[in-house]
Amino acid sequence: MGVAYFQKGAVISFKGRVSTLKREVGEALWQLEDSQTGYLETSKLDEMLLALESGDLTFILERDKFVKTPPTKALLIDTTDAGFDLAKLKRGCVKAVEGLPATKAMYQAALQEFWNTHSLTQPIPHWITVRRWVLKFMKGARDIQALLEQHQRKGNRRNRYPDAVIEVVERFIDNVYLTTSRPTQTRILELATADIQERNQWAMQSGKLPLPSARLVKRLIDQIPAFDRDVARRGATVARRMYRGKLNHIETNQRLEVAEIDHTQLDIFVVDDAGIPLGRPWLTVCIDKHTRCILGIYIGFESPSYLSVARCLKHALKPKLSLQTEYPSIKNAWEAFGVMKTLVVDNGMEFHSDSFEKACYQFDIEIKYTPRKSPWYKGSVERFMRTINDGISHGNPGTTFSNIFEKEDYDPEKHAVIRYEKFKEIVFKWIADYYHQKPHAGLERVKPADAWRNADSLSNTPVATNLEVIDMLLGRRDECSLTHKGIQVNNLLYNSQEMILWRKQCGDKLTVEVLVDEGNLGQVHIKHPVDGNYVAVPALNQAYAQGLSLWQHKLYRKYAKNRIGQDNEKGWMRASKDIHEMVMAEVGFKKTSARLRAKRGRLIEDQKRTQHIVEQYHEAEAELMPDAMMMSLSLNEVEGFSAIVQERRK
Fold this sequence. Notes:
Blueprint: E1 3-4, E2 11-14, E3 17-26, E4 29-34, E5 40-44, H1 45-54, E6 58-60, H2 81-97, H3 104-118, H4 127-139, H5 163-177, H6 185-201, H7 214-222, H8 226-234, H9 236-242, E7 258-265, E8 268-271, E9 277-279, E10 282-288, E11 294-300, H10 306-317, H11 323-326, E12 342-345, H12 354-361, E13 366-369, H13 379-392, E14 416-419, H14 420-435, H15 448-455, E15 463-464, H16 468-473, E16 476-482, E17 487-489, E18 492-494, H17 497-506, E19 510-516, E20 523-527, E21 534-538, H18 542-545, H19 550-564, H20 569-587, H21 594-599, H22 611-620, H23 627-631, H24 635-649
Parallel strand pairs: 7-12, 8-14, 12-13
Antiparallel strand pairs: 1-15, 2-3, 2-6, 3-4, 4-5, 7-10, 8-9, 10-11, 16-19, 17-18, 19-20, 20-21
Helix pairs in contact: 2-3, 2-4, 5-6, 6-7, 8-9, 19-20, 22-24
């Protein structure tokens, strides 16, 4: 993990070999040297970017420069919360002195300012120690994992005080210290000492409890978050005022300096290519503040969560050269990608998860939180959300789905219906061919695509060394029993030949850690109980589970249980088929309307407009095509569509 650049000396795993970028021998053409044989070959930069996008190219960090063969797995280091908190403190020290001359005076002044700014109570580390952290951080490609402690188990980890003493002190802290009377820590020490002395009067010499110290009282109080302490001692209103934060509007000087991320639910209803309902989509968007280019998006159907944030972040970090191959209707390259320095987020729960922090810090991304109920602090992405919702979501009457969905999930008077693949094409094309190519008022009428292209060169774009770690961090953590049947997650069985070997090595029954991707139940990642590596394990029923989201799985289970009376895989498969047929019938995706379906959801590159035909379309009030789709049709397509509308009106 970490960041790297397509520059001379970079070591990459590419085409099954470990190679070094020797020199740029032409425009976007690099000479590579095989690390084992010294064989020289040339490769186009576009080819390497495609491999980076697909995961077939990764960067080898300096700490792993002895590697001569491509790594087979991404290692996700498992750390305790305390270890990760210490690494965050070290990273803060490194950031405080970054770029300064390595002198005692400069380092001590910067560290003192950092301590004062964050009101830290622990001793300031020696400047030489911080210098070692800086070197480790730089050698580790600016990955926070380089600062993790490797010797946590050394030394005496026992508590000096018995549990009975700890319980007495904590009782007085809870019942006396955390009250509006606001007694001092010394008063808590006096009360706890008196209580234990009274107990010791009637105890045998061997059973006497040690008296607490002021240091113990302070340590236990410091373990309580400062905000929680002040809420209890001063009241919630005063505490919120004390810890209020002001985030000024951020000025940027270069691309990828600041990015913003947010969610919105679109006013449209989506079904997959088989007619299976997916629901109203949530759109998660990451936008570059300096150029207003969209770095990445994610379309999901669950409420915003770390899953949607992480997938959007992954899309933002990787190149998108394959997009035009996948969707030939897209004419302009989507060039924006890379590792941002700062990511501005709101205070949603999905942005406060440990997995989100670890994912960002492993790519040296600073997280900046906006104040509560202050969306203007990330105004770029907020404005874009309104623009895209107006551009692609305003639809026409659909159908009720009263026998499948709750009333509040689908409003037939408001939500248009469209297939998932076509909807993705609409969104991607709207961004690449319309939004990125339209002069932007916030950029002095410069197109976002031009602003991105002119801001910097590709060689100076920080890229993620290995995106596989995000895939692993995507999963919901769970613990399951591994038996001869495999493991059972969400009532689905997962097993593989590798799991059988694990049981032979470690025992017949094991408790293993599982990472579950709720967007695709086709496989899970299971942590090896010995070496800590994660291995992908497929579902036994791939025909049902592959590509299935947890949302769909719950829908099938509910339908199968209530209407079929079979809460098992056979009933779920039948529920999937029944729901598919109902949606096909209600939405009208039938063979007899093939000509009309060909018109729906299609984006044509010809940008001619025919306003009077569009007005006829609005008068019909019976079609399922969103306004933006209609406005993007060519003249011939609009006229053909109008003819169909006229036939149906007769």
